[in-house]
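Title: Prediction job returns without error message
Component: structure pipeline
Severity: low
Priority: P3
Assignee: unassigned

Description:
Job completed but the reporter wants confirmation the result is attached to the right record. Sequence as submitted:
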Amino acid sequence: MTIRFRPLEPLADAELIHPWVTHPKAAFWMMQDAKLEDVEREYMAFAANPHHQAFIGLVDDEPAVLMERYDPSRLELVGLYEPQPGDVGMHFLVAPTDTPVHGFTRKVITAVMTELFDDPATARVVVEPDVRNSAVHALNEAVGFVPEREIQKPEKKALLSFCTRAQFEAAVGGAR
Protein backbone atom coordinates (compact mmCIF):
# COMPACT_ATOMS: atom_id res chain seq x y z
CA MET A 1 0.00 0.00 0.00
CA THR A 2 1.39 3.39 -0.97
CA ILE A 3 0.12 6.62 0.54
CA ARG A 4 1.04 9.99 -0.91
CA PHE A 5 -0.38 13.46 -0.42
CA ARG A 6 -1.34 16.21 -2.82
CA PRO A 7 -2.65 19.70 -2.06
CA LEU A 8 -6.41 19.87 -1.72
CA GLU A 9 -8.06 21.99 -4.40
CA PRO A 10 -11.07 23.52 -2.61
CA LEU A 11 -13.48 23.83 -5.51
CA ALA A 12 -12.41 20.68 -7.34
CA ASP A 13 -12.26 18.51 -4.18
CA ALA A 14 -15.28 19.79 -2.22
CA GLU A 15 -17.60 17.18 -3.77
CA LEU A 16 -15.11 14.45 -2.89
CA ILE A 17 -14.67 15.41 0.77
CA HIS A 18 -18.23 16.61 1.50
CA PRO A 19 -19.51 13.07 2.21
CA TRP A 20 -16.40 12.39 4.29
CA VAL A 21 -16.73 15.38 6.63
CA THR A 22 -20.52 15.00 7.03
CA HIS A 23 -20.49 11.22 7.63
CA PRO A 24 -21.66 10.11 11.11
CA LYS A 25 -18.21 8.60 11.79
CA ALA A 26 -16.73 12.08 11.27
CA ALA A 27 -18.72 13.60 14.14
CA PHE A 28 -15.55 14.99 15.76
CA TRP A 29 -14.84 16.90 12.51
CA MET A 30 -17.85 19.08 13.50
CA MET A 31 -19.24 19.50 9.96
CA GLN A 32 -22.19 17.12 10.21
CA ASP A 33 -24.72 19.60 8.81
CA ALA A 34 -22.41 21.25 6.28
CA LYS A 35 -23.70 21.78 2.76
CA LEU A 36 -21.38 21.44 -0.24
CA GLU A 37 -21.08 25.24 -0.36
CA ASP A 38 -20.05 25.28 3.32
CA VAL A 39 -17.23 22.81 2.60
CA GLU A 40 -16.12 24.88 -0.41
CA ARG A 41 -16.15 28.05 1.71
CA GLU A 42 -14.24 26.43 4.60
CA TYR A 43 -11.49 25.06 2.38
CA MET A 44 -11.27 28.23 0.28
CA ALA A 45 -10.58 30.05 3.56
CA PHE A 46 -7.86 27.51 4.39
CA ALA A 47 -6.33 27.96 0.93
CA ALA A 48 -6.24 31.72 1.45
CA ASN A 49 -4.53 31.39 4.86
CA PRO A 50 -0.72 31.07 4.71
CA HIS A 51 -0.78 29.26 8.08
CA HIS A 52 -3.16 26.46 7.08
CA GLN A 53 -2.86 23.85 4.33
CA ALA A 54 -5.10 20.93 3.41
CA PHE A 55 -4.14 17.78 1.52
CA ILE A 56 -5.82 14.76 -0.02
CA GLY A 57 -4.15 11.48 0.83
CA LEU A 58 -4.09 9.02 -2.02
CA VAL A 59 -3.94 5.38 -1.02
CA ASP A 60 -2.75 3.38 -4.01
CA ASP A 61 -3.76 6.46 -6.04
CA GLU A 62 -7.34 6.50 -4.68
CA PRO A 63 -8.43 9.49 -2.54
CA ALA A 64 -9.00 8.20 0.99
CA VAL A 65 -7.61 10.74 3.49
CA LEU A 66 -8.08 14.40 4.36
CA MET A 67 -5.10 15.93 6.17
CA GLU A 68 -4.70 19.45 7.47
CA ARG A 69 -1.48 21.07 8.58
CA TYR A 70 -1.48 24.38 10.45
CA ASP A 71 0.69 26.70 12.49
CA PRO A 72 -0.60 26.26 16.07
CA SER A 73 1.08 29.48 17.18
CA ARG A 74 -1.27 31.38 14.82
CA LEU A 75 -4.38 29.17 14.56
CA GLU A 76 -6.38 26.79 16.73
CA LEU A 77 -4.17 26.96 19.83
CA VAL A 78 -3.27 30.64 20.20
CA GLY A 79 -3.03 31.40 23.91
CA LEU A 80 -3.73 27.79 24.91
CA TYR A 81 -0.16 26.50 25.06
CA GLU A 82 3.44 27.69 24.79
CA PRO A 83 4.49 27.22 21.15
CA GLN A 84 7.99 26.12 20.26
CA PRO A 85 9.89 26.69 17.02
CA GLY A 86 9.07 23.91 14.57
CA ASP A 87 5.62 23.15 15.97
CA VAL A 88 3.11 21.94 13.37
CA GLY A 89 -0.56 21.32 14.07
CA MET A 90 -2.34 18.43 12.37
CA HIS A 91 -5.82 17.05 11.75
CA PHE A 92 -6.60 13.97 9.69
CA LEU A 93 -9.73 12.15 8.58
CA VAL A 94 -10.04 8.80 6.83
CA ALA A 95 -12.81 8.53 4.23
CA PRO A 96 -15.73 6.38 5.37
CA THR A 97 -15.93 2.89 3.90
CA ASP A 98 -18.28 -0.08 3.96
CA THR A 99 -15.30 -2.45 3.97
CA PRO A 100 -12.90 -1.44 6.76
CA VAL A 101 -9.38 -2.86 6.59
CA HIS A 102 -7.76 -3.82 9.90
CA GLY A 103 -4.78 -1.56 10.64
CA PHE A 104 -5.59 0.87 7.83
CA THR A 105 -6.03 3.98 9.98
CA ARG A 106 -2.77 3.27 11.81
CA LYS A 107 -0.98 3.09 8.43
CA VAL A 108 -2.63 6.37 7.48
CA ILE A 109 -1.58 8.26 10.63
CA THR A 110 1.95 6.86 10.23
CA ALA A 111 2.00 8.21 6.65
CA VAL A 112 0.61 11.56 7.83
CA MET A 113 3.33 11.87 10.46
CA THR A 114 6.01 10.79 7.98
CA GLU A 115 4.78 13.48 5.58
CA LEU A 116 4.92 16.14 8.31
CA PHE A 117 8.38 15.10 9.53
CA ASP A 118 9.68 14.96 5.95
CA ASP A 119 9.79 18.75 6.29
CA PRO A 120 13.07 19.40 8.14
CA ALA A 121 11.51 22.48 9.76
CA THR A 122 9.02 20.28 11.65
CA ALA A 123 10.33 19.58 15.14
CA ARG A 124 7.12 18.59 16.88
CA VAL A 125 3.56 17.77 15.84
CA VAL A 126 0.76 19.18 17.98
CA VAL A 127 -2.77 17.75 18.10
CA GLU A 128 -5.88 18.72 20.01
CA PRO A 129 -8.53 16.03 19.52
CA ASP A 130 -11.79 16.02 21.44
CA VAL A 131 -11.28 14.42 24.86
CA ARG A 132 -14.09 11.96 24.03
CA ASN A 133 -12.37 10.67 20.87
CA SER A 134 -10.74 7.61 22.45
CA ALA A 135 -10.08 5.94 19.07
CA VAL A 136 -7.85 8.80 17.91
CA HIS A 137 -6.12 8.99 21.31
CA ALA A 138 -5.06 5.35 20.87
CA LEU A 139 -3.85 6.02 17.31
CA ASN A 140 -1.94 9.10 18.46
CA GLU A 141 -0.25 7.11 21.23
CA ALA A 142 0.69 4.38 18.73
CA VAL A 143 2.74 6.88 16.69
CA GLY A 144 4.42 8.54 19.68
CA PHE A 145 2.12 11.30 20.89
CA VAL A 146 2.27 12.11 24.59
CA PRO A 147 -0.79 13.83 26.12
CA GLU A 148 0.05 16.95 28.08
CA ARG A 149 -3.28 18.17 29.43
CA GLU A 150 -6.89 18.92 28.67
CA ILE A 151 -7.63 22.37 27.27
CA GLN A 152 -10.87 24.20 26.63
CA LYS A 153 -11.26 25.40 23.06
CA PRO A 154 -14.30 27.41 21.97
CA GLU A 155 -15.83 24.37 20.23
CA LYS A 156 -14.68 21.49 22.47
CA LYS A 157 -12.71 20.20 25.40
CA ALA A 158 -9.52 18.87 23.83
CA LEU A 159 -6.57 16.69 24.79
CA LEU A 160 -3.43 18.64 23.94
CA SER A 161 -0.74 16.18 22.86
CA PHE A 162 2.74 16.42 21.35
CA CYS A 163 4.99 14.17 19.30
CA THR A 164 8.61 14.97 18.54
CA ARG A 165 10.51 13.46 15.64
CA ALA A 166 12.40 11.20 18.11
CA GLN A 167 9.16 10.04 19.77
CA PHE A 168 7.69 9.22 16.36
CA GLU A 169 10.78 7.29 15.27
CA ALA A 170 10.85 5.36 18.55
CA ALA A 171 7.14 4.49 18.26
CA VAL A 172 7.08 3.35 14.64
CA GLY A 173 10.68 2.20 14.17
CA GLY A 174 10.73 0.29 10.90
CA ALA A 175 6.94 0.54 10.41
CA ARG A 176 7.34 3.49 8.08
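Comment from assignee: result matches the submitted record. The helical segments are 10-21, 36-48, 104-117, 134-142, 165-172.
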